[in-house]
Amino acid sequence: MTAYQSNRGHKKGGRLVNYTGPCAARVTGFGLHGSDESRVAKKSVDLLVRTPREWVAAVMADFNAFLADHANCERKASALAMSMVVKYPDRQRIIPGLIDLAREELAHFAQVYSLMQARGIPLVKDSQDPYVNELIALMRHGRDERFLDRLLISSLVESRGAERFRLVSEAMEEPELRHFYRDLWACEAKHGHVFVEMALVYFDAAVVYARLHELAGREADILRRLAIRAALH
Ligand SMILES: [Fe+2]
Ligand SMILES: [Fe+2]
Q1: Which ligand has the nearest atom to the CA of 73?
Q2: Are 220 and 47 a contacting pair, CB within 8 Å?
């Protein structure tokens, strides 16, 4: 029996762990109207630079450290989704989606923690994430501007996570981990789109995509400067 299996539960350490797959939660549907559907169909999250191969090498060289950091990233992603529910209780059309996201990220945390337990790797205290901190510093003031930036920065972080999980999956020889990261890749790519869809509920497509493109350029600058380490960012 493996520590991670999608779409089923299993006994681990005498305890049943229920996994319903990395993308178990339904994080779709924000009550868009007919004319809105074409806007959603247009959705795309294009990262402007690729992660360097050196990053993959650093992760593979200290995979245990990467797992511990990854667990913290999933936990923080869940907390971030719920913090948006707290910050924006009036944005009712996206609250169910945010709750779904929080659940899904928490499920990812549980899955990564399970992998860590199986390998005898302890959780570590949170450390500074310079990539995320620099992105947060780009958020504008003003209620609407900040709300839009928060959604779009979240989208970029999710899309970058997806790209990196794909790289980890491709480099991984251990089948269990290869499949786990392949599933996560698909899931985080979906999250990247979900945050753009949420933005499209409240803002014009032209505004959303112009700002997304602008932020993607800044994300690329940050990534180019980022020190390479065995961590998600
Ligand atoms: Fe996740
Ligand atoms: Fe995610």
Answers
A1: 1
A2: yes
pTM for this model (two decimals): 0.86
Identity of the amino acid at 17: V
Classify domain 53-225 by CATH number.
1.20.1260.10
Neighbour-count burial of 208, counting CB atoms closer than 10 A to its CB (0-12 exposed, 13-18 middle, 19+ buried): buried
CA of 233 to the centre of ligand 1 (A): 14
> What pLDDT digit, counting tens, does each position of 41-96 carry?
444 578 999 999 999 999 999 999 999 999 999 999 999 999 999 999 999 999 99
How would you class 32 by CB atoms within 10 Å of its CB: exposed for 0-12, middle for 13-18, buried for 19 or more? middle
Instruction: Name the one residue in this structure whose structure tokens are 């924006």.
Output: 88
Rounded Cα–Cα distance for residues 15 and 202 (Å): 44
Residue spans of the chain under pLDDT 50 = 1-2, 5-20, 25, 28-29, 31-43
Task: Give Cβ neighbours of residue 15 (< 8 Å, ≥ 6 apart).
Answer: none
Residues 173 and 175: their CA atoms lie apart, in Å, by 6
Distance 116 CA to ligand 1 centre (A): 16
Smallest-distance ligand from the CA of 193: 2
- Report domain extents, the chain: 53-225
Q: How far is CA 32 from CA 64, 90, 130, 198, in A?
A: 42, 17, 35, 10
